[in-house]
Amino acid sequence: MKDAPPPISDKTIRRTWTFIWSLVFLVLLAAVISIFFSPPETPAQKAERLRQAQVEDAHKKQKAASEMAFQDKLKNICPAEFACSTYAKTRQDCATAGDFNNCVRIKMGADYGLTSWCTDDGNVTVPDPPTYMQCLSWSAGNYLGIH
């Protein structure tokens, strides 16, 4: 039968743990030193950082301006989009009326002033109008006070 390995002494265990904790301490010390004693920013690095900040700021301003323009477009065109959707049916209903304009004015009610934006088939006369769903979303947000 083979001999059993000799038992590990307490001294060996202490040396092993001392070595492990020394390595952990050195790694942490190196991390702290690299964080607090990093080289200063060069003028080229500072200029690049400032340029990046300006580009990001310009991009944010452009995006905000684009969103404002889109919201203005919705605010101006969506009421006409809803009015135009009923204008086509109203035109058909009033086709045989004795006074066409009076019939349209009565049936359209408050939306009569928006009929100048409408084509005869009920579309809006502006190029690239918002979709019906965009206007529906705008209308709901407007009703809830989000816009």
Proportion of helical residues: 55-70%
In total, the number of strands is 0
Query: How do the SSEs run, as a string of H and E?
Result: HHHH
The parts where pLDDT drops under 50 for at least 5 residues are none
Average pLDDT for all residues: 87
Overall geometric form:
elongated
Proportion of β residues? under 5%
* Assembly status: single chain
N-end to C-end Cα span: 88 Å
Number of helices: 4
What Rg do the Cα atoms give?
A: 37 Å
Outline:
The protein has 147 residues and is mostly helical. The protein has helices at 10-36, 43-94, 100-108, 132-144.
Topology, element by element:
Layout: H1 10-36, H2 43-94, H3 100-108, H4 132-144
Task: Please provide a written account of the structure.
- The structure is a single chain.
- The protein has 147 residues and is an all-alpha fold.
- It has a domain at 56-147.
- Helix content is 69%, strand content 0%.
- The protein is built from 4 helices and no strands.
- The protein has helices at residues 10-36, 43-94, 100-108, 132-144.
- The radius of gyration is 37 Å and the shape is elongated.
Features:
elongated; mainly alpha; 147 residues
